[in-house]
Design goal:
single chain, alpha/beta, Rossmann fold, five-stranded mixed beta sheet, 32 helices, 46% helix, 11% strand, elongated
Length: 782
């Protein structure tokens, strides 16, 4: 086998994605319907950014051309569904899955195709799968005298069942399920017969796979790896049958071992038994790239994690097949541009074939996606990560709970509209294409959370990851200096290289103040390096739009202004300590459960009363000082006794146990805690060193001075209620739209829905329902 690089080295070479030219449309007939279907289905695997459009086709896309082709193809008679005048079964079962997927309604011609495909099973009761076995041609039948002679002639020309034809027939029946509510579908006797044979075909495929595994295991001269691969594809098409069954997984694992055992040194597989015969061109065989494109596509199903894991050990073999593709590539010219093309070799001469080229392309696309998934897994191994599978509701609940912060009742709404709704509601369709953006260009993908220590900044980010079901990665300064200061550049390079390979991931840079310290106040070489190093890497992560990333910090004032600007972070959000109500409820709960005291807080205790006690005058004096040393000295002072009630605002969640202990000594059940009692309990909390005056000064000024939202980004609010207060029919307009049968309001990040002008309507946040939700109220007559 040819030498191939390691997974990491190969991934770093930027796996090629061919750039396609737009197909010329719209012929009224097609010389080879099946070849055209293969080409169109292959093109749809190509990322949109690699699909250039011709000027005359502006406004149309490949999907539109595919629909035009499907309508033209299905209207052709069966005599047009041939390849070089033969192979009718092949053309119907191979071409119809794509054609039917593009039809908007059931077509009566489908019945004729089903009759053609399943005729062989009706004629031979013991035939359990599909092969190239068609009715005898009328002109040939006329030459034969009796029905018996015609039947013998027909049987003599039939090929036996094979896994290739059977796979595509099963795919066709799956696609046809999209029409199950339509009248024509329900009345189709051919379809009822075909669906009744599905389990028989699956059982036949599993038996055929076992037979081929046995032949391969003893290196029989009669083995057929093509049939093994296509039978394996059928078995893998039903993940529910092997997901949690160890014996089935062992069977599949051995099947892969047998499959790759016959790979030749040049990277390909030899021809085995023919599928059918072309009268003018010779035998037709399975094409290795079509085989492996189909096989790898089974591994890209959401439930096929076991298959992806098993295939990973054959990475080098798959690379060798790609190397073989490159060695057999031919070049041509189209519109003055070089194009890559391939020949299947079926015609015993190097004729470029569209379907062969499409098959190579489909293989490359499937392998590229698998490579991205494997590279992501390798990248995660070197990072501090955890899976959030199955914890969406837990994450949503935590996000709501930890968003109950001081002085802000709408934090959960805004975080939900910025980061959760865009992922939950707007499906980008990139679940298994790691190279494509997952976050739309106008959506938010990053933010800095800043505020006093212990305000649940880390928990908020973790709960966002859980709420959208993405992997969570947490990085600290220690990760960057793990190999020592002399190697910090190398370490940072490795970390960001891994981050660029991730997708469906939320990354938190926690407490990285030292990495982004303001350059003009942090003159040492190490600090300058880290700041300069971080800037381009953050911008690269932001442009890739495959992950979300957050920074949590206690000192936003130390951050380099270049780091905090747009196109690196979409928002800078102040996260204050828990709200007064949250602290009261938690303290009451501790007093009752631990000390048996059922108490309440006086109504006079409000957030406004606490904030009034803030040492504002002393903070202003410190701010006016022109001496940096004097300012630092004043910020290091303890909280004045007269401002002791202000301590409640900055009290962390974990400190409420101490507050409850201090309150318990002078209370009995039924008492009401007034401001004087509360102030005395707060004074007993010895925190002047960890929370000096400077912390209170920052608390009152940071939100005003640093909080920012990039209003060029879009927040998605889900409309859960609609209240019609008039009989008028005001037309729905932007920012309202419908996505996946859900009405949403898309408004600039950071703005309140109720502040958005919407003629004829108003938007109101539903504070008692799920976060990020609004009520749409029709207000005016038109």
């Amino acid at each position: 086998m040819a030498h191939v690089p390691s997974l990491e080295a190969f991934a770093s070479e930027k796996f090629p994605i061919f750039k396609l030219g737009l197909l010329d449309a719209e012929p009224k007939e097609f010389r080879h319907i099946t070849s055209t279907a293969t080409c169109y289905s292959s093109v749809e695997l190509c990322p949109k950014k690699f699909r250039p459009e011709k000027k005359q086709d502006a406004g149309r896309d490949y999907d539109a051309f595919g629909k035009d082709f499907a309508i033209t193809a299905v209207n052709q008679g069966l005599n047009k569904w041939l390849s070089d005048g033969a192979a009718g079964i092949y053309c119907s079962c191979r071409g119809l899955p794509y054609v039917v997927s593009k039809l908007e309604a059931w077509h009566p011609q489908i019945d004729q195709h089903l009759e053609r495909i399943f005729y062989q099973m009706r004629q031979e009761a013991d035939r359990l799968a599909i092969g190239e076995a068609d009715k005898i041609k009328p002109e040939d039948a006329e030459k034969l005298k009796t029905p018996e002679e015609r039947a013998k002639k027909e049987r003599d020309s039939w090929y036996g069942p094979n896994a290739y034809h059977t796979f595509w027939t099963l795919e066709l029946l799956k696609v046809l399920e999209r029409f199950k509510e339509e009248d024509g579908y329900q009345k189709s006797e051919e379809l009822k017969y075909a669906h009744g044979r599905v389990d028989l075909m699956h059982n036949w495929a599993r038996q055929q796979l076992g037979f081929q595994v046995a032949l391969h295991s003893v290196e029989s001269s009669l083995l057929d790896t093509d049939q093994l691969a296509w039978a394996l594809s059928i078995v893998l098409s039903r993940p529910e049958r092997y997901q949690s069954t160890l014996t089935e997984q062992d069977f599949i694992r051995q099947s892969f071992a047998c499959l790759f055992s016959t790979q030749e040194r040049v990277g390909t597989w030899r021809h085995y038994g023919p599928l059918f015969h072309y009268p003018n061109a010779g035998n037709a065989y399975c094409y290795v790239f079509e085989t492996f494109a189909t096989l790898l596509s089974q591994a890209l199903k959401p439930e096929a994690e076991f298959v992806r894991s098993t295939l990973k050990s054959y990475f080098r073999s798959l690379v060798a097949l790609w190397e073989y593709a490159k060695s057999t590539q031919t070049e041509g010219l189209h519109d003055g541009h070089k194009i890559a093309a391939w020949a299947s070799g079926h015609r015993n001469k190097p004729v470029r074939e569209s379907w062969a080229t499409a098959s190579v392309f489909a293989y490359v696309q499937a392998f590229r996606k698998l490579l991205g998934i494997w590279t992501r897994e390798e990248a995660l191994l070197g990072l501090n990560h955890k899976s959030t599978v199955g914890s969406k509701e837990k994450g949503a609940s935590t996000l709501v709970q930890r968003s109950q912060i001081w002085g802000r009742e709408d934090l959960a709404d805004h975080l939900w509209a910025m980061f959760v709704n865009p992922i939950r509601i707007i499906d980008t369709g990139n679940a298994f294409d790691p190279d494509l953006p997952l976050i739309r260009d106008d959506f938010s993908c990053s933010a800095i959370f800043f505020g006093p220590p212990g305000t649940s900044k880390t928990s908020l980010v973790s709960s966002i990851a859980e709420a959208i079901g993405w992997t969570y990665v947490e990085l600290h300064p220690s990760h960057f200096v793990a190999e020592g200061l002399p190697n910090v550049q190398h370490t940072a390079d490795l970390i960001f290289k891994r981050l660029m390979e991730l997708d469906h991931t939320v990354v938190l840079f926690d407490e990285i103040d030292e990495l982004v310290r303001e350059r003009d106040i942090e003159p040492d070489q190490f600090g300058r390096f880290l700041t300069t190093s971080m800037l381009p890497r953050l911008a690269e992560l932001w442009r890739a739009r495959k992950i979300m990333y957050f920074v949590a910090t206690n000192h936003i004032e130390y951050f380099d202004r270049a780091v905090t600007r747009s196109e690196r972070f979409d928002a800078i959000v102040f996260i204050s300590p828990p709200s007064l109500k949250a602290k009261e409820n938690r303290t009451k709960s501790i007093l009752k459960s631990v000390y048996g005291l059922d108490i309440s807080f006086a109504k006079e205790i409000t957030e406004a009363l606490v904030e009034k006690a803030m040492p504002s005058l002393r903070c202003e004096e410190a701010e006016k000082s022109t001496s940096r040393e004097t300012r630092q000295s004043m910020h290091a002072e303890g909280l004045p006794q007269a401002s002791m009630l202000a301590k409640l605002a900055l009290l962390r969640w974990d400190e409420l146990n101490t507050l409850a202990l201090n309150l318990s000594s002078g209370l009995k059940s039924g008492d009401v805690v007034d401001s004087i009692t509360l102030e005395k309990a707060l004074a007993k909390i010895n925190d002047s060193k960890i929370r000096p005056l400077g912390e209170y000064c920052r608390f009152t000024s940071d939100r005003v001075n640093y909080e920012r939202f990039d209003t060029s980004r879009t927040a998605v609010w889900l409309i859960e209620e609609f209240k019609d207060t008039t009989q008028a029919a005001t037309p729905i307009q932007r920012p309202l739209e419908v996505k996946d049968n859900k009405m949403i309001a898309s408004i600039p990040v950071g703005l309140r829905p109720e502040d958005i002008p919407l003629p004829g309507y108003s938007l109101e946040r539903i504070t008692t329902a799920s976060p990020g939700a609004v009520r749409l109220r029709k207000m005016l007559k038109t």
